[in-house]
Amino acid sequence: MIAKRIFILTGAGVSAESGLSTFRDKGGIWAQYDIEEVASIRGYERDPARVLDFYNMRRKLHGGVEPNAAHIALAQLEAEWAARGGSVTLCTQNVDNLHERGGSKAVLHMHGEIAKARCHDCGATAPYDGDLSLDLGCGACGRTGGMRPHVVWFGETPLFMDEIYAALAGADLFVSIGTSGNVYPAAGFVASARAAGIDTLEINLEPSEGARLFDHGRYGRASETVPAWVAEMVAA
Ligand code: OAD
Asked: Is the pLDDT of residue 94 over 80?
């Protein structure tokens, strides 16, 4: 049976071939930076300038990359499924905008978006592609010093969780693409899907630590495995 409502979770592996480092692969971001120092709410409270510098560096890298065949194939699947009366929910842990630039229309960025800034004081959020600094003022509340990237740090709650769990509960296929399954709550989606009797598929470079939790697995580079899977879905 072909799934009508597909829930897709993506992670850093889907953007790796666009040139963005993953986090936990050999030489990945967390091999170079202390996660607690640069990506936690405690790190930000201790040294906000250090955290802003880390995300300024990453924002620059994100500006110079292009979507790859995996992003583009997922956008095609979304359009094709909408035309057939089905649905694709695309939930990403990535803070890049490569899914949107690949053509996806509705992306749930559960860990936020690096191309937006948020005021830590009043919560106002707006697109922002420049460097953030402690001298910047908030356009909404006027306070200075609280402008931060619109990303979720360890110790903060991911975004859109009600919408995400509702879409997951209503799905008939859960697909995890390019994520190691180390970070909750996303790492728990496969168990929720299984408990609800939803078919599960892992697409990754190699089997993740949680691969045995999935009903099916497809392994290899996302730029090859994802278009191949989408082509099969569309042809079926
Ligand atoms: P990880 O770096 O933990 O995992 C990336 C996964 O992608 C690994 O399982 C790799 O095997 C796989 N991979 C690498 N290259 C690939 C390729 N070309 N094709 C397919 N798969 C490939 O990244 P995430 O699981 O996304 O959160 O990490 C989750 C969260 O941890 C991130 O959103 C970030 C990080 O800390 C925050 O900062 C809050």
From this structure: yes
Using alpha carbons, select from 232, 151, 171 the residue that is nearest to residue 9: 171
Compute, in angstroms, the gap from residue 89 CA to the centroid of ligand 1.
19
Model pTM score: 0.97
Q: What is the gyration radius of the CA atoms in the chain, in angstroms?
A: 18
User: With a 6 A CB cut-off, is 44 part of the ligand 1 pocket?
Assistant: no
Is residue 67 within 8 A of residue 18, CB to CB? The reply is yes
**Percent helix, percent strand, percent coil in the chain, to nearest 5:** 40, 20, 40
pLDDT digits (tens, 9 = 90+) for 60-76: 999 899 999 999 999 99
211 lines ligand 1 (CB under 6 A): no
Q: Is 111 a catalytic residue?
A: yes
